[in-house]
User: Fold this.
Amino acid sequence: MIRSTSCKVIAAVACRGGDEQMLARTLARLDRCRHVDRIVVLHAPSAAPQVVESDKVKLFAAAGELDDAVRPARLAARRWSSTGWRGGIAGASVWDEPLAAGATVQALDAMGASAALIVGEDWPLVDPALCDAVLERHLQQPDVLKLVFTQAAPGLCGIAVGRELLAELRDKQAMIGSLLMYNPRVPQGDPIGKDPCVQIEPAVRDFRGRLIADSPRWRRLIETIDPAEAHELDAAAIVERLAPHVTDVHDQSPAQVTVELNTTRQVEGPIVPQHHAAIVRPDMTVEQARELFEQLAESPDTAVTLGGLGDPLCHPQWFDIVSAAHDAGLAGLHIETDLIVNTEVLEQLVDSHIDVISVRLNADSAPIYQKLMGADQFDTVLRNIEWLLNHRRNGLPWIVPRMIKTADNVHELESFFDRWMYFCGHAVIESPSTGCGAMPDLSVLPLAPPRRYACRQLAHRMSVHSNGAVATCDQHWASAPDGDLRERWQSLRSLYDQHARGRFEAYAPCAGCSQWYRP
Ligand code: SF4
Assistant:
């Protein structure tokens, strides 16, 4: 295919003060891309990184701010799905993390270029051949294939985006990922089976790691390969080398932690665990929470969900506990709630800088809500969601309505999903859990894959009960043993290793559990 001479491509690398060694490695990899005419290092006017310019590598100071006001919301949308190329809230993709759409358009215009390859400053293993493949596909039909990507694991491949589409993203403050997800307003097939997606080797696609050096956890994995050697390897060779080590990155600490503040809820219908089992634990104190958060924050990428079996907003000091979480410096904060609260609490929620509020709605009509949740509060919850959507700032907090799919609400699933995708940009349908037999299985159909593998939550996620004890998993509703947080995590890692060897009965409840496939 002949490439139009009017097409000039830049690799846009937005710099926000990351590690300069990783930046140098990223630029060196990009330097090998045949279809990249210029590598443009974008930066805020007062924060130029230490980069040696050349004919190919140029610094470019953004006119004004490098980032728009909704960048924190884009990052928050990725926090619980950082090992996937997509799958974040509202479809947030790995390319939305480095995206600086406005500055990239400025650079394109200044250089007379028509397309950009979006790459992060800390992607030292980005594969030049994969980047060339997406650029080549884009350049074949730039007016039709306005964005071209691969399904490679995060950090291995940039995305090619045409100038007009980037300007649209800038103007709408939108995410690249929102163009790649199901949208009830513009129904379309999944683009992964179409021309915008360059097909790649399954091993590169299925690798479950994050090859972005933005936290000690993933940096350790990247540094498993000597930099000089890594520079010569392609994506397939890299994932082959790193795959045996990928779950080891969580050996020292979990990436995600669910913290139960209480076991109290305002609803008690048959979809609620407390309807079936007596689950009563003391509320977590502010001091307990503070101590826990400080320990968890030793890993700077730890994301915390306040939830578990209770409703955190029923805790009399939830606001102080949220403040303690922020003081500790956790990477992300998510609350799961029934959202049966008054306006004063809604105002506090908006003021409390929470990233995500999941609303346990479970129905798309008042009668089904009443049937499953056992309360006449459907309209209250809807009003509260609407209030939050109208009063949140710069897209935060994300509001995510959730539905546990059962025989009683399955007929409302489609309208529920489409409604909340439309209003909130995201909705979650999940399978019922039983707490290892503590309540009846309300599943419509079994969802577990046919072939069992090691429980995914043991790999990277921890659950802490309101009395401070670490549970084995989120299906462990009964009392958990006391013990030091790190020691408990180590014992869960050992259990994961047993699972990996096929010993699923090492912890008796695992033998009959059907929740092992959930992330
Ligand atoms: S297999 Fe089930 S019971 Fe075992 S750890 Fe995983 S979720 Fe818990």
